Amino acid sequence: MTFGLTFEKLLLIGLIAVLIIGPERLPRAAESFSRVVRKAGEYLRATKSRMREEMGPEIDDVDWRKLDPRQYDPRRIIRDALMEEPQPATPTQARETIAEPIAPRAVPQEFSATNRPPFDLEAT
User: Fold this and answer.
1) For burial by CB atoms within 10 Å, which of 9, 98, 102, 120 has the most?
2) Which pLDDT belongs to residue 102?
3) Structural domain boundaries, residue 58
4) What pLDDT was estimated at residue 91?
């Protein structure tokens, strides 16, 4: 994980930092930067050890690449689905897809002052 940083970019960032910070304050800035990097490393190691404690030995069996959300590109999923050859339906699947006959619709009731529609007091 280099985050797109090459040696040339790091050298340029360092040169700009030297020009902005100045030679008098550079040792102090480098020391504080090293402290921040050291604390970040300690934090990552503590997080890793805590995960091992909580998940147990199963953590080594997890395939982390499978859980990477970047692999779920919708365009790729659709392209793969369209390129996939359709599977012929088996006789069991064909029977399951046959629609049941549709029952005839009931004639709608006409309501009047004497024949009122149903009303539920608890529903309102």
Assistant:
1) 9
2) 67
3) 26-82
4) 63
